[in-house]
Amino acid sequence: MIKPELLDRWKIKNSEDLYGIKTWGASYFEINDKGEVSVTPFADKPDVSVSLVDIIKGIKERGLDAPVLLRFENLLDSQLTFLNESFNAAINDAGYKGSYQGVYPIKVNQQQQVLKEVTRFGERYHHGLEVGSKPELIAALSVMKDKEACLVCNGYKDEEFIDLGLYATKMGFKCFFVVEIPGEVDMILQRSRKLGITPNIGVRIKLASRAGGHWTESGGDRSIFGLNVSQLIDVVDLLKKEDMLHALKLVHYHLGSQIPNIRDIRSAVVEAARVYAELVKEGAPMGYLDLGGGLAVDYDGSKTNYSSSRNYSLSEYCADIIEVVMSIMNEHEIEHPTIITESGRAIVAYYSVLLFNVLDTSTFEHPVVPETLDPETHEQIINLHEVYKGLTLKNLQESFNDAIYYRDIIRDHFKHGQLSLRERSLAESIFWNIITYIAAEKSRVKRVPQELDGIGDAIADIYYCNFSVFQSVPDSWAIDQLFPIMPIHRLNEMPTRKAVIADITCDCDGKIDRFIDTHDVGHTLRLHALNNGSDYYLGVFLVGAYQETLGDLHNLFGDTNVVSIQINKTGGFDIVREIEGDSVEDVLSYVEYDTKRMVEDFKQSAEEAIREGRITAADRRNIINAYQNGLRGYTYYERFEE
Predict the structure, then answer these.
(1) Strands 103-105, 537-540: parallel, antiparallel or unpaired by DSSP?
(2) 415 phi/psi in degrees, rounded to 5
(3) What is the Cα–Cα distance from 312 to 263, expressed in whole angstroms?
(4) What DSSP character marks residue 308?
């Protein structure tokens, strides 16, 4: 039981500390005076903010509802600006003679709206695109207008892919074919001769350097794509033989998507810059050094080399890269190259916020244990009850061990038919009351026994929420990626419940039970008790990278509603675009159902029910209407309105 005086003393600052919003929020998210999460997109106007609660209200008034993915155009613009200006500042401070031109990797979030905004906001910096497939190249060419921006073509390439890139080059685009495997060079040269277009060729190298984190296999000698040193020399010799060495202009590597340790980044840049210098010595004109991705996002706010964080700032990242490249080029008296990075995660992660409502909770509460038991009660249940009656601060561990022992015996007796279901229920109530007492009191013990460390997590509430983990935050399920999660309102109240989050799929993996924590990974999240009749909304933040692309149709839950927000410097906001989430009909069509035929088949089943006397013709009409309304409806939980 939480003391009333603690509830009264709870302030917004306590919520800021509890959920870490000041650390992972990067000044984009804060808690306002009403106890609501608000978005603050302008560094020069920190007082301008918009409440997520107000946005939800505006969306509902327009006929949409949760779950909804909010895209904040301002944050995408701000992150692009921050990245480019940070590199420009490092270049100016160091006296670097080259320039920086970033590219956005389309695979991070391929949504058409995202590409249009990246190219629109990035145009003033000539910020380009990176593609890894023919469909991505086709998408890129539909939105790119800036001929000064780089278009980097990675991935496995067929003749159509190469021809399209060559035509883009002829049109004036700065298009680079990055050779991933040795055999690609022959095809690029063959198609360039056929079309009479000189290609811009790059080479992807396999570095000896490797990094920590989830994506460590992206680099190193055994990475899937890239040329080893021997293969690289073979490519150079082939280009010399074909009198095409003048087409070799770029070196590329990819260390990983989320590199938490700056030392790994610096080590890789050193190795790549050495390779670049050696290729210049071989006679290649070069000019571009593509350092790939790796710029991490501090998801947990810890500023460490943990896989969901980073131990460096953006300015440190840029300064280290510029310093390393500059020193190696100066050593060999080589012109400073144009530096390219493929920083997608850092650009779009902050851009999107997933909001959903809590539908119900399962709280860990059991009937009060009677003071005395019937003398005829089974002996083992009486033993367990005595453990409960004898609980003190001094015997917590002993009581825990005894409770586990008797609980296991009782369950075994039940399986062998020696206890009734009602007796089993009584025993379970006694056992969990013991566990609840121990969890509440163990904090008063000076030295908590190791066996009791996670006991509080065992009695956490379950909050059932209106979303699908597999569709909207698949990395949370697939690779244990941590995302900041918190209530978006009531943050001036003390959250009194410890909970895990369950989605509305029927999969036991459809849950989130790993949360950011100031010390390690938390296995419960502090939430507020539900107020009857009032919506309670949670937000999952920093989900702009990969989550929309990787989401799947588990249980046929489709894409959520998507709403794009533009925040004005006056403090208001405009809804600039809204995309309704998938209907049931949409997702069924994705998995090859003919929904018109489905309706006809169901009508026949209903007609057969009339012939069998099970329903009336009027019933049939209502049933068919319900079926068709279901097809048109949202795949997620909807409020039923009479």
Answers:
(1) unpaired
(2) -65, -25
(3) 10
(4) T
Which 3-state string (H, E, C) describes 122-154?
HHHHCCEEEECCHHHHHHHHHHCCCCCCEEEEC
Q: Which two tokens stand for residue 111?
A: 């949504």
How confident is residue 552, by pLDDT bands cut at 50, 70 and 90?
confident
Structure tokens at 184: 């690609």
Assigned token pair, 11: 């302030």
The structure tokens 């149709």 sit at 553
- Given a contact cutoff of 8 angstroms between Cβ atoms, the answer to whether 510 and 468 are in contact is yes
Integer Cα distance of 183 and 78 in angstroms: 41
Cα(141)–Cα(150) distance, integer angstroms: 12
Lookup result for tokens 């990969």: 546
pLDDT mean over 409-432: 95
Q: Strand, coil or helix: what is 276?
A: helix
Distant-in-sequence, close-in-space partners of 251: CB < 8 Å, separation ≥ 6? 202, 203, 205, 272, 275, 276, 279, 286, 288, 289, 290
Place of tokens 């000896």: 208
Least confident range from 77-86, 208-217, 456-465, 477-486: namely 208-217
Element containing residue 359 per DSSP (H, E):
strand 352-362
Phi, psi of 342 (to 5 degrees): -105, 65
| CB neighbours of residue 29 within 10 Å | 27
Identity (one letter) of the amino acid at 328? I
**Long-range Cβ contact pairs of 596-603 (< 8 A, separation 24 or more):** 598/631, 599/624, 599/627, 599/628, 599/631, 602/627
Task: Tell me the Ramachandran region of residue 454: left when phi exceeds 0, alpha when psi lies from -120 to 50, beta otherwise.
Answer: alpha
Instruction: Judge contact between 593 and 601, C-beta under 8 A.
Output: no
For residue 166, give the 3-state DSSP assignment.
helix
State how far Cα 57 lies from the chain centre: 25
What is the rounded distance in angstroms from the CA atom of residue 312 to the CA atom of residue 44? 23
Q: Please state whether the peptide bond connecting residue 367 to the residue before it is cis, i.e. omega within 30 degrees of 0.
A: no
User: How is 80-118 classified by DSSP, letter by letter?
Assistant: HHHHHHHHHHHHHHHT-SS-B--EEEGGG---HHHHHHH
User: Residue 3 pLDDT more than 70?
Assistant: no
Q: How far is residue 292's CA from residue 253's CA, in Å, rounded to a whole number?
A: 6
| Cα 402 to Cα 409: distance, rounded to the nearest angstrom | 11
Tell me: pLDDT of 403 over 80. Answer: yes
CA distance 250 to 339: 10
Residue 191 CB neighbours (<10 A): 20
Six-digit token string for 546: 């990969």
Q: To which residue do tokens 């969306």 refer? A: 59
Strand 150-153, strand 103-105: pairing: unpaired
* 505: helix, strand or coil: coil
Any idea of the CA torsion for 265, 268, 274, 280, to the nearest 10 degrees? -90
pLDDT digits (tens, 9 = 90+) for 316-351: 999 999 999 999 999 999 999 999 999 999 999 999
SS3 536: coil
Tokens 């390219």 found at: 340
CA–CA distance, 513 with 510 (Å, rounded to integer): 10
